[in-house]
Amino acid sequence: MADAPHAFQKCLSPNCGKTYDIGQVLVACPACGELLDVKYDWDQVRPPSSWKEIEANWSRRDNPLNFSGVWRFRSLFPYATDEQIVTLGEGQTLLQQTDRVGQYVGLDSGKLHLQYEGMNPSGSFKDNGMTAAFSHAHIVGAKRAACASTGNTSASLAMYCSVTQLMKAVIFIGSGKISYGKLSQALDYGALTLQISGDFDDAMARVKEVTKDLGIYLVNSVNPFRLEGQKSVMFRVLEALRWEPPDWIVVPGGNLGNSSAFGKAFAELKELGLITRIPRLAVINAGGADTLDQLYNKHNLRWNGGHFDKDLINGYYQTMDETGAKASTLASAIEINRPVNLTKCLRALHDCDGVVRQVNDQEIMDAKSQVGSGGMGCEPASAASVAGAKMLREEGVIAPSDRVVCILTGHLLKDPNATVAYHTTDQDYFNQILGSRGVKRAAHANRAVAVKNELADIVTAIQLYG
Ligand code: F0G
Question: Cofactors per UniProt (predicted)?
Answer without folding.
Answer: pyridoxal 5'-phosphate
